[in-house]
DNA sequence: GACCAGGCACATC
DNA sequence: GATGTGCATGGT
């Protein structure tokens, strides 16, 4: 929680994820795979203007070709159009297309269902669980992983589940906390933890010094 | 022009 | 299992 408060104090409330509906979160979670959010925004805007995100039915009735044409700006458009269709098809099969019912499934069951969909991995599934279904699940992304590694708090071999457990075992199960914390790691990562960035003015600098003094090892710059 | 970015599935060893 | 590789665009 010390780290959370340090980040919150520096960056303030993030109000993430910027979407109008759970359906938009789900589509956005696919679109953001290995892609900068700025490019995702362009694709989301095109989908909104085409009213494709207005309902499940609208998305179901959109062909994969139309979808891929609209999401082209965010890259991997053919792959992502197919993955979005897979996701929607799973909701159709599971609950007859009732998204609210699908997102109301118990946390563990919903995560399992999501992970069984081709194109949905742990990060995408957890983003949907937290931001669309409002389930208390900590989302681990590239920024979180990179920041933790550079601070010497995880090993380079730590898996997604290892990192997720690290947070969930030490924090209360709280949707708004996980929401804000994940967003704060992203905010930190964007500014200080890009591949070639160095950490001058990083809000975690003092904590870095404390942890490196304790384990006697020099820390990475963030 | 080169490099990078909130992943994932699949092939190969 | 672990390690590549393909997918693709826009910004810097």
Range of helix content: 55-70%
The proportion of residues in beta strands is: under 5%
Q: What is the CATH-assigned architecture of the largest domain? A: Orthogonal Bundle
Largest sheet: none
**What is the structural class?**
mainly alpha
> What's the number of extended β-strand segments?
0
Overall radius of gyration: 18 Å
Characterize this entry briefly.
This protein has 222 residues and is mainly α. The chain has helices at residues 2-11, 22-31, 37-49, 56-60, 64-70, 77-95, 99-103, 107-115, 122-132, 142-150, 160-168, 175-192, 205-215. It is 61% helix and 0% strand.
Description:
With about 220 residues, the chain is mostly helical. The protein is globular and about 55 Å long. The chain folds into two domains: about 1-15 and about 140-215, no CATH class; about 20-130, Hypothetical protein, domain 2 (Endonuclease III, domain 1), CATH 1.10.340.30. About 60% of the residues lie in helices and about 0% in strands. The longest helix is centred in the middle third of the chain and has 19 residues, at about 75-95. The protein contains 13 helices and no strands. It has helices spanning about 1-10, 20-30, 35-50, 55-60, 65-70, 75-95, 100-105, 105-115, 120-130, 140-150, 160-170, 175-190, 205-215. It binds a DNA duplex (13 and 12 nucleotides) through helix 3, helix 6, helix 9, helix 10 and helix 12.
């Amino acid at each position: 929680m010390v780290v959370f408060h340090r980040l919150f104090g520096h960056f303030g409330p993030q109000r993430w994820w910027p979407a109008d509906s759970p359906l938009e979160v789900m589509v956005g979670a696919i679109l953001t795979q290995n892609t900068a959010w700025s490019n995702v925004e362009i694709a989301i805007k095109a989908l909104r203007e085409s009213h494709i995100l207005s309902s499940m039915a609208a998305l179901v009735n959109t062909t994969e070709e139309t979808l891929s044409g609209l999401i082209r700006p965010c890259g991997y458009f053919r792959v992502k159009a197919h993955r979005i269709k897979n996701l929607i098809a799973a909701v159709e099969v599971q609950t007859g297309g009732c998204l609210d019912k699908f997102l109301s499934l118990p946390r563990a069951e919903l995560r399992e269902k999501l992970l069984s969909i081709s194109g949905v991995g742990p990060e995408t599934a957890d983003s949907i669980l937290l931001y669309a279904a409002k389930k208390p699940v900590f989302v681990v992304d590239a920024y979180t992983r990179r920041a933790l590694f550079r601070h010497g708090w995880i090993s380079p071999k730590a898996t997604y589940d290892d990192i997720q457990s690290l947070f969930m075992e030490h924090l209360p199960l709280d949707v708004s906390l996980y929401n804000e914390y994940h967003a704060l790691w992203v905010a930190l990562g964007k500014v200080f933890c890009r591949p070639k960035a160095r950490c001058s003015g990083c809000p975690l600098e003092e904590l870095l010094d404390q942890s490196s003094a304790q384990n006697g090892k020099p820390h990475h710059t963030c």
